[in-house]
Amino acid sequence: MTPELQSVLDRLDEVERRYRGMRTRSVLALLVSLAILGFAIGMHVYRMQADLATAPAPAAHAPGVVEGTRFLLRDAGGVIRGGMEVEAGGTVKLVVGNQDGHTGAAVLLAQPTGLVQVQLRGPSGVVRASLNGGVEPSLTLTSDDGVSAAALVTKSGLPGQLMLSDRSGMLRRGP
């Protein structure tokens, strides 16, 4: 092997090492950003629920008020493409999209317990990403087959954890 070829190989090795480090930091930065966003959304929804709980009920015939426990969004062909409802236990659910095998959906759940969840579902209905706001917020990302996953988890009084599972399902702690 010539010295010139060895020099090129050494430089290529260095570039590949830097790329792997940058990729790891980018994924970690994305996960942290999403966790912060979820916490902010959760706090906003929590404040909105508190405001709604203390607000007086609207008059029966107040102009501009539409009331109901379930609203559906349909396209021009009559196919349901989303909706909003209040479930029997008090959980508020907002869905945009549907799992018809072709499109995914975004689901926002706000439970009376204070737990708020933002879910991104694939066309098959599998939850691909979930942002959980509550006492111990978390962020999870999952492959379509449900095997490969990444999770950023917080626990009260403990340091946060980054957990990864590979295609074989082996759970691994991140850096």
Compact summary:
The protein is an alpha+beta fold and 175 residues long. It has one helix at residues 3-54; strands at 70-74, 80-86, 92-97, 105-110, 116-121, 127-133, 138-142, 149-155, 158-165, 171-173. It has a single domain, classed as Outer Surface Protein A, domain 3 (Alpha-Beta Complex).
- DSSP, total strands: 10
Mean pLDDT level: 80
What percent strand? 25-35%
Radius of gyration: 23 Å
CATH class: Alpha Beta
Give an overview in words.
With 175 residues, this protein is of the alpha+beta class. The protein has one domain: Outer Surface Protein A, domain 3 (Alpha-Beta Complex). The chain contains one helix and ten strands; from the N terminus they run H-E-E-E-E-E-E-E-E-E-E. It is elongated, with a radius of gyration of 23 Å. It starts with a helix and ends with a strand.
Write the layout of secondary structure elements.
Layout: H1 3-54, E1 70-74, E2 80-86, E3 92-97, E4 105-110, E5 116-121, E6 127-133, E7 138-142, E8 149-155, E9 158-165, E10 171-173
Antiparallel strand pairs: 1-2, 2-3, 3-4, 4-5, 5-6, 6-7, 7-8, 8-9, 9-10
Question: What keyword list fits this structure?
Answer:
175 residues; alpha+beta; Outer Surface Protein A, domain 3; 10-stranded antiparallel beta sheet; 1 helix; 10 strands; 34% strand
